[in-house]
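Complex 257.
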Amino acid sequence: MKLIKVPRVNALGYEGPTGAPDLIVAELEKNKLKLDVSSVDVDNSNVEASEKAIYGGASGIFANLEGERAVFVGGDHSISYPIVKAFGEKFNDAFLIVFDAHADCDYCAKEPTHEEWLRGVVEAGFKPENIVLVGARKMWDVEKKFLREKGIKVFSEVYDIEAIGDYVTENAMGKDVYVSIDVDVLDPAVAPGVSYAEPNGLSSRELFYLLRRIFCIKSLRAIDVVEVDVVKDEKYDFRTVKVSAKIIDEFLGSERK
Ligand SMILES: [Mn+2]
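Predicted structure with manganese (II) ion bound:
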């Protein structure tokens, strides 16, 4: 298992997500896990350069996976744009599962931010029929329209967790799977230290049920865990850092099995 820290700043300049990778890895190391940790050198003063660096780092990782799995630890959700782009280029039949309270499908700026990265991925050529969005509950009309037009499967607001698990595993099975986990998919009671908290999120039991099923998919290649804001999370005794580390620990365990 390769663990890659990607300490990218929020597009609006919020520094909260940049400290997350170090704290999450420190939390994992409390369990005395032997981790293969590297990091992408992100220049947070230069959007274009940092996107290039992340894309280059991810391409290199995917070229040398050799059956191993990788986890990218953010950072702002914009890191998923260059990473998933590289993933889609490496694997012909790539499948993307996104957990997020938001759709992130607003109109694209030149370099997609946390608000548009998913639209950017589709516009870069990722097959929309191979994308599932789980937990989205705050979406703009323009985003709903985009998701509908592209035929992207969305599970929103009312969660039949078993049905979601069935749909996702049946459709992803055999494809090269990438999972992007914005921890704001969780209810703010579980994950309060995020950049954009939204009420009525998944419980920790619901998220872990789905992740355990997804992590069993043999052709799962990589995940990311993003959007922890450590400045906010400090006020909550780093509850969100801890749940993020738990997600990664579960992922590490799935490879050990
Ligand atoms: Mn989000």
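The chain has one domain: 2-256.
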